[in-house]
Structure formats: C-alpha cells, structure tokens
Amino acid sequence: MRVHEKGVLEESEYYFFTPSNLAKSLFFHLICTGKFSCDHNYYVERDKYHSYLLMFIVKGQGTVCYNDRVYTAKENDLVIVNCYRPHRYYTNTGWTTLWLHYDGNISKELFELIYDRFGCVIPLSNCLIIPKYLNMILEDARACSPLSEPLMSCYIQRMLSELLMLSYDFIVPKPDKFDPVLEAMAFIETNFKEKLNLKVIASYVNISPFHFARNFKKDTGYSPYEYVVKTRLNHAKMLLKKTTLQIKEIAVECGFSAESNFVVNFRNNVGVTPREFRNTPF
C-alpha cells in the first residue's frame, strides 16, 4: 500500500493487520509493518499508540525522543519504543527505515528489560537476524496472502530474543578490562557455601552496595541475592540426584542456614520439595 503522509516519499509502503482473538490472548501479534523512505519533513509525535515499535535504520539518521531522553538513530541502528507512552521521532536529513508495530504476549516485560539495558536505540553492527526477519515479514505482507499468526509471533519473538542476547554480549569482558559483574558472578560460584550477602559481594569487587546491586540486576536479570540462591539451588539439584546425602546435609553443603530455609527456597523456586525432586525420574 502506497503512503500519502508528509515527509514520506512515494516509493514507501505500509500494511495493516487485525489480529484474531486467539493471537491477542496467546501470541506476539503484528499490527502494521512497512518500509519508509523519508525526507527532512518527516516527523511523528504521539501521546499514545497502542503498540510497541521496532524500527531498523537502513540508511540515513534521525532523532528519537522517549522518556525525557533524546537519542540519535543512525544507519544499522534499531529503535525500540513503547508507544503506549508519549514519544516522537523524526529526521532532519532523510532516512530509510524498515519497521513494524506489534503487541501481545509479554511485550511490555521484554521491552522494559531491553530498554533498561540499552535505552531506545541499539547498534546492531554485524547482527543480521533482525533486519532479515523485518524483511521477511514485509515480503509476506506485500504478497497480500493471509499471514500465519503463530509464524509472525515466532518472528517477533526471535527478534526480541536476539536483542536480549546482544545485551548479554555487552557483559563479556574485554581481555584487559576488569568487569565487576562477571567477577562477582565468579565469586558467588566459588563461595556459595559461605555466608554471602550484598555487602560481602560488593566489597569483593570494591563497589558500593547500591551501585553494585543496580548494575548486577541490569546486566544479569537477577538481584545478587537471587543469583546466590539460584547458584545454591543448582548445586542442590545435582546433590539430590547424584548422592544419597540427607536433605539437611544438602542444605548445609549448599550454604543454606537451615533445612527449613532450604526447603522453602527450593519449593518457591522449583515448584516441588527437594524430596519430590529427588524422587522424580528424568
């Protein structure tokens, strides 16, 4: 479908979709998609548009304003915006973009996780997966044939998952650079049997507890305490399956203060008691 909007050039196109009730309840669903070539007159400002935006900058550059922050988006950058909140984006020099609006499933939760780590503009550099899937979705829309909603959901989820994997790549250390989060993770893995708390771990990497807790959560998705518990439980699972140690012995071996504390943490995180886990065949 050709576009007639200010600043959008004639070769541009977009397509709209109405998701089924099933897609709304279960899937990531496509709302609209397109490819825009724009001149310096292109300007979008909204208080709200019921969707989330993925926009890949094919060439050119522009500006994105969201949550009182201003970003520059240039060639090979990806823009992600929660359009339920006020936002604007524009170009003063012209750009070409591949974009789609989507919603559903855990769109809000994934957006917040990605936004907390990157902000709204993410350099893709050599990542080809996201532009590939944006092009595939556009080609399917262009064909004017019915789109498979489960397949579109898979495409959207794959792109969002790729962004999460990119964010974890950011915490891979440079050969000569100290990374306090990775150092703390290694410290926990080695010392999970000991009495660990936020102050002890932050002191090990020489960062204030407040800043350490914030950075650790941002980079790993866990609070330091959650990561300690996760590490202890993973070790406990191995002991439950590979040894005949009593439950209380495993609790001590994994750093829990008491058997009752171990059982409560195990049930809350795994969904069964340690004894039920031990007796479940795999």
Q: How would you concisely characterize the structure shown here?
A:
The protein has 282 residues and is α+β, with helices and mostly antiparallel strands.
Outline the structure in words.
The termini are far apart. With 282 residues, this protein is of the alpha+beta class. Mean pLDDT is 91; it is low at 170-175. It has helices at 21-26, 107-118, 129-142, 149-169, 180-191, 198-204, 209-220, 224-242, 247-253, 259-270, 274-279, and strands spanning 13-16, 28-38, 43-46, 52-66, 69-74, 77-82, 87-90, 95-104, 121-123. Strands 1, 2, 3, 4, 5, 6, 7, 8 and 9 form a nine-stranded antiparallel sheet that branches. The protein has two domains: 13-169, Jelly Rolls, CATH 2.60.120.280; 180-279, Arc Repressor Mutant, subunit A (Orthogonal Bundle). It has eleven helices and nine strands. Helix 2 packs parallel to helix 4, helix 3 packs antiparallel against helix 4 and helix 9 (247-253) packs across helix 10 (259-270).
Keywords:
282 residues, alpha+beta, Jelly Rolls, Arc Repressor Mutant, subunit A, nine-stranded antiparallel sheet, 11 helices, elongated
List the helices and strands and how they pair.
Layout: E1 13-16, H1 21-26, E2 28-38, E3 43-46, E4 52-66, E5 69-74, E6 77-82, E7 87-90, E8 95-104, H2 107-118, E9 121-123, H3 129-142, H4 149-169, H5 180-191, H6 198-204, H7 209-220, H8 224-242, H9 247-253, H10 259-270, H11 274-279
Antiparallel strand pairs: 1-2, 2-8, 3-7, 4-5, 4-6, 4-7, 4-8, 6-9
Helix pairs in contact: 2-4, 3-4, 9-10
